[in-house]
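Sequence in, structure out.
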Amino acid sequence: MAAEERSEEYDDAIGVYIIAPNRLLRETLARTLRQRARVEVLGASDRVFDRAPVPRPQVVLVSAASVLPTCLETIRRIRQLVPEASVLLFGMEENLDLFFQAVRAGVAGYLLAEASAAELVEAVRAVARDEAVCPPRLCRALFRWFATQAALPSPQLCRHHGLTRREQQLLPLLARGLTNKEIAAELHLAEQTVKNHVHRILRKLGSNNRLEALARLDGAGWRV
């Protein structure tokens, strides 16, 4: 009877799998989620699974400690094994570059470290409904990037900021959201060389990160 009651209780529940390196954190999250209606914790582990979990989850909840510094590899591995699941990162920093990499890798949600338990549960429900979850400021930055991704700065603007020919060559690749490794492969350069170029571009534009640099060029006038 109890098994039948449990089956009915979780018949339409959201299946969640937790990935977090800290056992106490995993247990706390599982307890928090189980206390909420329509959420069932299907499993938990300290690292990305080697094979798709059974039953397959609708949401994979991943802590910041599990994705850094290999954010892209972690997310892509999950997306490869459970492509139908929504990946929700939590405990993250308000870091534009990391956020942008995560979006490109296919996450559905990006929750900051200061989020409450109630916000975490609501985020799980939101991504399960095929909605996106992200902090407003980072969401705004994403819209700004999307609006400028097909644009190129004018030669006059590049000269004004003292960008070299090679640095100008990197701009459209940065606008496409490519990583240093991907840019290096496309331009047949060493990854460290690309990293140095990007650092100089940011310094010349007075920016702290790539999205800020693109937004600064956008505000100064881009030529589509």
